[in-house]
Amino acid sequence: MSDLLFEVADQLIMPRFGALDSSDISEKQPGDLVTVADREAEVELGRRLCEGDSDALIVGEEGVFSDPRCLDLLSRVAHAWVIDPIDGTRNFARGKPDFAVMLAETRFGETVRGWIWQPAHQKLYVAELGAGVTCNGEPLPTIPASPRTVPLGATYLPVPGEEWAEVKVIRSWGSCGIDYPKLITGAVDFLSYRSMFPWDHLAGALMLTELGGRIATDTGEEYGAGVIGRRLLAAATPQLWIATRDGLFGE
User: Fold this and answer.
1) Using CB atoms within 10 A of its CB, is residue 4 exposed (0-12), middle (13-18) or buried (19+)?
2) Cβ–Cβ contacts within 10 Å for residue 70, how many?
3) What confidence tier does 125 reach under pLDDT thresholds 50, 70, 90?
4) Above pLDDT 70, what percent of the chain?
5) How far apart are CA 106 and CA 56, in angstroms?
6) What are the φ/ψ torsions at residue 240 (nearest 5 degrees)?
7) How far apart, in whole angstroms, are the C-alpha atoms of residue 109 and residue 157?
8) What is the chain's mean pLDDT, rounded?
9) CA dist., res. 202 & res. 210, Å (int)
10) What is the phi/psi pair of residue 190, to 5°?
């Protein structure tokens, strides 16, 4: 499966990196960019995945925007592939390297495998349920212990006026495919999001939980396919998740 991500990135994504024309970029809705590379890569990934299992449900970010009905099926179908062809499209469109190709495989709503390929950084993260996480083929044994006395986290869009004494929050890298690897390698202690789309989070969530972290909504519901809520919080350890939740949300 890793080879498939490499091939699609090499053939359809990287040739357009830093070379997009204005006609190659559009908005699905105000502020939500999509490029010709997003669309073509998702179609090709979906086609190739269906060759292996024609009955599998394909849930792609761009396809769901056109037809959201498959989201309702994701938590209960026997087999599904969840595709984010370019996570961090805004970065990609601006010629910035912080973007990723992400893929998750689910069985009856449970994420069993996940891939994050960062083609500009040449880093591949792979997780398998019960088998841990690798980076470029090397096992990641654990999330490094944080040296910080005040937990440091990242969020995509800080809300003006939000300030916390118990935690420190910076702006994230603009791609969940960059954020989650930052978390599991110790660059930050937690991540906070307002959206919970499966293509953004399933692969990274599996990597985090395989390494002993926790991801759940602000009410404590563990994250997975079909879970929605007000805020999503991912932390390096369950204890840190509680401390961060209390610091962010005052509960």
Assistant:
1) middle
2) 16
3) very high
4) 89
5) 10
6) -70, -35
7) 28
8) 89
9) 12
10) -155, 165
pLDDT at 160 over 60: no
Mapped to the 3 state alphabet, what secondary structure does the chain carry?
CHHHHHHHHHHHHHHHCCCCCHHHEEEEECCEEEEHHHHHHHHHHHHHHHHHCCCCEEEEHHHHHHCCHHHHHCCCCCCEEEEEEEECHHHHHCCCCCCEEEEEEEECCEEEEEEEEECCCCEEEEEECCCEEEECCEECCCCCCCCCCCCEEEECCCCCCCCCCCCEEEECCCCHHHHHHHHHCCCCCEEEECCCCHHHHHHHHHHHHHCCCEEEECCCCECCCCCCCCCEEEECCHHHHHHHHHHHHCC
Half-sphere CA count of 187, side-chain side, radius 13 A: 13
Specify the residue for token string 């925007």.
Answer: 65
How far, in Å, CA of 77 to CA of 75, rounded? 6
The CA-to-CA distance between both ends of the chain, in Å, stands at 42
- Please answer whether residues 120 and 235 qualify as being in contact, where contact means their C-beta atoms are separated by less than 8 angstroms: no
Torsion, Cα of 171, 204, 87, 199 (10° steps):
-120
Judged on CB neighbours under 10 Å (0-12, 13-18, 19+), 130 is exposed
Q: Is the pLDDT of residue 6 over 70?
A: yes
C-alpha dihedral sign at 186, 190, 192, 196:
positive
How many C-beta atoms surround the C-beta of residue 22 within 10 A? Answer: 7
The Cα–Cα gap between 154 and 170 comes to 5
145-158 pLDDT per residue, tens: 888 988 999 988 66
Contact indicator for 226, 216 with CB cutoff of 8 Å: no
